[in-house]
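TEACHING EXERCISE
Course module: macromolecular assemblies
Task: Read the component lines below, then compare them to the predicted structure of the full complex.
Student: A.B.
Group: 4
Components provided:
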Amino acid sequence: MVSAIALLALDVGWGTTLALKTIIVLMVIPAGAIILGYVFLLKMMSHMQSRLGPMDPGGFHGWFQLVGDGIKFLQKEDVMPAESDRRVFAAAPLVVVLSTFLIFAVIPMGPDLVVKDLDVGVFYALAVSSLSVVGVLMAGWASANKFALLGALRAAAQLIAYELPLLLAVVGVVVQAGTMSLQGIVYAQRDGEIFGLTGLGEPFILTQFIGFALFLVASQAELTQTPFDMPVAESELVSGYMVEYTGFRFLFFFIGEFGTAFAFAALAATLFLGGWSVPGVTGDWANILGPFVLFAKLMFVAFLMFWVRFTYPRLREDQLQALAWKVLIPLGLINILLTGIFKVAF
Amino acid sequence: MPKLPGLIGGLGVTLKTMLRPAVTVQYPHEKEAPAPRARGVIALKEENCTVCMLCARQCPDWCIYIEGHKEQRPPRREGGRPRSVSVLDRFDIDYALCMYCGICVEVCPFDALFWSPEFEYSESRIAEMLHDKKRLGEWMESVPEPEPLEVGADSGKKK
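Instructor-supplied answer key:
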């Protein structure tokens, strides 16, 4: 980022750089949430159900629908249940959005376009995405509503259970790349070779396909998307832990959900598809092309996630847990075993 | 996993549906023509009405309001007595009450009421949903031709 700004012949200190990066990430999250929400939730879902989705707001195929929804939410009355714990109730959506914001701090969009490339990037990203569990529990407890609490407890059980397959899928990638830093993983994919063929790079999806499938399923569960949306079972618990939330607090949860979907899709694109890198492109061109390449890859991953979301019915809580503990974790462990063997043997 | 082929097949179904054009007709920019026998609005052919009041009596909602009076006409031939003729003063159908059951059209012995497939007559004030005699006569223009009888049907005409 510093060299990119030096590219623009500006000499700024670390304070301004930090402020700029913070502002950019804060803008990316709602923008990403709106783009994902519009393209996949409103339009792709509609076409999968043989209907059109919003067509009128904004004129051209209803692109303004979500922005208008956001404005509508902002002008609603701030209602809190009388028995609720006010501070916790108000803080819960902020915790969820905070965890989304913190994931974006390590996702690289170019060789220099990253907020901070930590050496333990992947470890940090997974740790920070677990903060949303705390936010969900806070929301369910502070709502002073038995059904919200039920939803929150289901959510906590599910999110904790599915963090392990997520972790195990990522460990396979880390073992193959040899580093936990996300930039390092991207470089390992760009400069790698397939059976001695250089120049094409080596996206880890080719060797880590089990890991990719695991990551997709686990991130689907982490985001409480169908088929794992028992906590937010709309036809059963209304909105589960979100049921007492209205207006801009609900908007925060919504942005948190889709923003985290954006972040997880970006993580999957970085870990398995090669992130911002295109084999053969280096230097300043990579800085300019990087964000667009990452965006294209993450839209593909998000397409897969939302495709599964709109196809399958909901899993019951016990089926969900059985899937995590009895199927996905053993698969993840086998994946690590195989990766280790192949890494040492070849 | 034995369920996997079914799961993949399900994904294929949603993908195929997504790639096909949607079936939505975007009203009011695009309109679909209703079937010719669709029940949109009821039209009145005033010259056929003899103010027998059958339609008003049989309407389940009592949404037809009829007023008429009798007049004397000169006899048809010399030396006869004057004929009395019913004249229709007022024939209103209140479409805010009408439930489009069609009993009035069915029961009219003189074929004075007809179905028309027109449906775009919503108003912003309920009072304007009461269509008077003149407006009901105007709806006659939208009444389609009666459908041809099936092959081999008995036309009912006296031989």
